[in-house]
Amino acid sequence: MKVTEHIKNAKKTLFSFEILPPLKGISIQSIYTSLDPLMEFNPSFVDVTYHREEFVYKKRADGLLERRSVRKRPGTVGICAAIMNKYQVDTVPHIICGGFSKEETENALIDLDFLGIDNVLVLRGDPIKSETYFSAEQDGHKYASELLGQVHEMNNGIYLDEELKSSAPTNFCIGVAGYPEKHFEAPNMRSDIHFLKKKVEAGADYIVTQMFFDNQQYFDFVNLCQENDITIPIIPGIKPMSTKKQLTLLPQRFHLNVPNPLVDQVLKCKTNEAIRQVGVEWAIQQTKELIEFGAPCIHFYTMGKSDNVQKIVGSFA
């Protein structure tokens, strides 16, 4: 079932979860161990992130450096299929620009369609660690809007090979990312909303936000979208704080602000266990306010850990 159908049919705010593929060499049992405690809450869907290849440089015997490709988290498509088979729940694979040519994207979308996966989340993706700025693959997409356009064309039966006749259209529900505190590359919020609206006009069906810790950021973002005639569902994404290191790591990695009251509470904690409890309580309050606001679904970024998310969602069961 499509994400938008879940939302349309819902009588209350839904819950969904996002997981990371395991590192190469680790079995899928790690995914099941993380998801098992969460399935009692009947999530409407589970997102599975995609991580492009990274490059490392190995010193050869002759002293020269050899560039090698390393894929640390493979398996997004396979994990989606496995989750659907084991739990009978819809999955949302992330599709990114980086690391894919247009043809590789088309082939991946065909595989997803064959598996009966109805949803995709379309993202540009981040630059690899050796790049200062994002660089597209040769014959790949530079922007999420371009990638979205390819998915939308396949939904209309238009493939890269123009000579194909009577091509079967796909039927993907297309999600895109939204940034309540603006994308870090956008000069201002007005510009960011402008390009978000372009994605909606190009066929996006729903929006999932970057994580945030201040609900007012989400409320203002929704109101700003509505003022600019963006009326598709906007799903808030939240993540519970769990370590003191995240006070600097999350703002650096995701370009977000952490409210002073949360910072103060975390700094008073003596152990990570105490910090995790603070994070749970903060996220419970966030969730309560988001439900009261009328958020269609609340999307939890688990980052491979589920015990704190289980406590949060369990308080609303």
Verbal overview:
It contains eleven helices and ten strands. By secondary structure, it is an alpha/beta fold. It has a single domain (3-314), classed as TIM Barrel, CATH 3.20.20. An eight-stranded parallel β-barrel has the order 1-2-5-6-7-8-9-10, surrounded by five helices. A two-stranded antiparallel sheet has the order 3-4.
User: Termini distance?
Assistant: 23 Å
Q: Can you identify the CATH class?
A: Alpha Beta
Compute the gyration radius: what is it?
20 Å
Q: What pattern of helices and strands is seen along the backbone?
A: HEHEEEHEHEHEHEHEHHHEH
Largest sheet: 8 strands, parallel, barrel
DSSP helical segment count: 11
Q: Can you tell me the CATH topology?
A: TIM Barrel
Our count of domains comes out at 1
What best-fitting shape do the alpha-carbon axes yield?
Answer: globular
| Helix/strand class | alpha/beta
Going by CATH, the architecture would be: Alpha-Beta Barrel
The total strand number stands at 10
Q: Residue share in helices?
A: 25-40%
Would you kindly provide a brief summary of this structure?
This protein is α/β, with parallel strands linked by helices. It is 39% helix and 18% strand. Helix 4 (102-114) crosses helix 5 (144-155) and helix 10 (272-293) packs across helix 11.
